[in-house]
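Revision sheet: structure tokens.
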Amino acid sequence: MNAKDFEKYTSAITLSDMEIFVFPELIYSLVLANIMSPVIWRWRELDCFKKLEGKNSYRKLMRLKQFIIEEFDFNLDLETWGLTSKAGEIKRLEKFISADEIAKSNALFGYQGDKYYFDVDIRKHFGLDKYDSDIIPYWKTETIEAMEAFRRKPGYKTAAGECVSLAALYAAAAFVVCRIPLEDIYMILTPLHSQNFIDLQDGVLTNNRRLVTKAMWFNGTAISNKAQRALRNENITIVAHSTGYAHCLYEDATIDRAAYKHFAGCLASYLKADLTMSLFASFLRSNREYQKHFQMCRDCHGRPHFLKAEVLFHYEHGSNFRIADKTFDKLLAEVADEDFVVYELPGRIRCDRLEQFITDNHPDLTTIEGKSTFKSFVEPTIPDAERFANELADFLYTEAKLPAWEKNYLRSKPIQIPVDYSRRQVIERLQSIRGDNTTADLAFYAYRDMQTCDWRPFITAAIERNPVSLEMTGSRSIEQVRQWLEQMDNISIYTGSRLAQPDEVANYKTADGIEKAFSLANVIRRRHPNRSIEICVDNADVTLSADGRYCFKSQKNLTKTVKMPAGKAATISD
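Predicted:
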């Protein structure tokens, strides 16, 4: 490997937020690693999914949402993977992207967001405000195994992961469990969030543990408003797909041009809706300050009765029925008679007349003409009609800030995996294209397959980017660190010949003997940088030598000798 490739391959092991931004292939390599994992394939055999065999993918996806909500927490503990140096990370990666460009696009390196994020003090919201010096969290993305292993951490009863981990999990599970083709799944990364767009029915957006359909996007509820924040207020930095990626800063794009165009059209359609009375009710639900300008009207034995809009929304809040949909009459039936009056309320627009106006005129608020027509209707009643019309237009239409369309589209081999493949067939297919597809090759590093991968990226990551294990061992002597490791369960969180990094060992307190040896090597190298280290793996026996011999037991059936001379690159031999 040349230096650039080596940096990318070591980053496939650590998968930090910044590394994924610099090397956009990495996010999809994590998806593929999760698809290869036996964990998600076991979900297929659970009763909740077995009984959906023969059902369509949309039905399975809705059940997957409930499963993930029940089994996974959203983890926003920024220090789960320890702390690192901002200057050190920038120096390591500035040969690929300048420090200024990193700062504009990464929350840990200066990104503040647009006006919306200033208004809600987004850095404080995420706990970023306390990192105002060179020391910042090592924001890493977890594999499905690392997410599942959160169950072992104090304070966690379920699996867990942050937004990038959950997006990668959803993409993999949508393919494995719901049989949704990879071609229909698009990953969307912004500086503060990661989610997926699934080209199914009118479109489905994943958002942390939840799913957002187009109807939900426009329902005006608090949870939907939060789901909208990234696409409404941030630039999209990366779009990743089975055919490749498009990056906000890179002129080259590996995504198929037609696939990117199709995605842009689908997303635009998802984010836009024509004005209807139901959507207008959702707008008022989301913007309570405007409710005072409207009144509802019902027929009572041939006579009109009137009701303040805000009163009806109050009733809706505690009801299963909704304003302006097919359950509207049932909602009206729940309203106490004394809340109605027999006279038209002054200074308020009647919603039945507004509905008739919408039906007759079909105003398109994305056009100057349509907005002007609508403004003329509400102007006699609403003080700032132009602002009202603009805010309604913004509610109905969001323009996603995608990476520029004009790119140098490189021809690349797409990742094509039929949905009816078995796990073994998936792995064999990915193995067969590793030489032609960098993302597929990187997937085996994210998967930690030490049987088929060069060990050097794993070793470099293990002794340079694992601060948690160093912090946890603290002032313990080397022998005490060995004892601490020996007391852990001798079981890896990864199956087969795959290996955990030292910080995964430290966080989850379980490890195979090879993983314990690398964890000890990480501590020794930090404390004694001039000391040479050798790790000999001979099937069940693992020996670390470094001015002392430390022995561990392994179940990985690997044979390797790793030599780490002081100040030199590691060498590996069979």
